[in-house]
Amino acid sequence: MLNFTTKEQKNTEQTYMSVDNIELTPFLIAGLFKNSLIEMDPTPVIEEALPIASFTILGNNRSRVTIIVDDTANLYLPDEQLNFLLGILSACKMTMEDVAIININKNKAVTYKSIEVELKADKIILFGVTAAQIGLPLEFPFYQIQQFNKQTYVAAGLLKHIEKDKAEKTKLWNCLKQIFIG
């Protein structure tokens, strides 16, 4: 778009104001900046507290995968079972960054609803935990992939039993392949 100006218009513009040389009076500046960028008398800021999880987890839950175990003697799992679980996660191309492990024995308030709200879990794997223990209104057998409440569930036996039984490992692996590898 071309702008045509006459010689008279150019002289008038230069007389009144140039975009390059705008002068603001202190009164105009005060009006433009009624609220200063730096507050001289700060009032205390009350930060809204994030809701505290009603249960403890191991892992960072990046992929929203929740693993629920039942161990009476440990906070989460004994070392050998945790190492076995890490091997399973590795086979599924995951790490502890991707999951949240909950020991239902140490977290009695865990329900499928609290997992949904607090962890936003998409996939829940139960090791030695029944659906009834987390308040699910349905029952399903081990190694059956179950959809409920826009979440995928699979139940299996205790990790210590699966680790020693090749048939159980195979059943678990077949489920996990369907869920995680496709």
Label the CATH architecture of one domain.
3-Layer(aba) Sandwich
Order of helices and strands: HHEHEHEEEHH
Q: What fraction of the residues are assigned to beta strands by DSSP?
A: 5-15%
Q: Which strand order spans the largest sheet, edge to edge or round the barrel?
A: 2-1-3-5-4
Q: How many beta strands in the DSSP annotation?
A: 5
Cα-based radius of gyration, to the nearest Å: 31 Å
Task: Please report the first level of CATH classification, the CATH class of one domain.
Answer: Alpha Beta
CATH names the topology of one domain as Uracil-DNA Glycosylase, subunit E
CATH homology superfamily name of one domain: Uracil-DNA glycosylase-like domain
Could you tell me how far the N terminus lies from the C terminus, measured between alpha carbons in angstroms? 57 Å
The chain-level mean pLDDT equals 83
Outline the secondary-structure elements.
Blueprint: H1 7-16, H2 26-32, E1 65-69, H3 79-91, E2 99-103, H4 112-119, E3 123-127, E4 146-148, E5 151-156, H5 159-164, H6 166-181
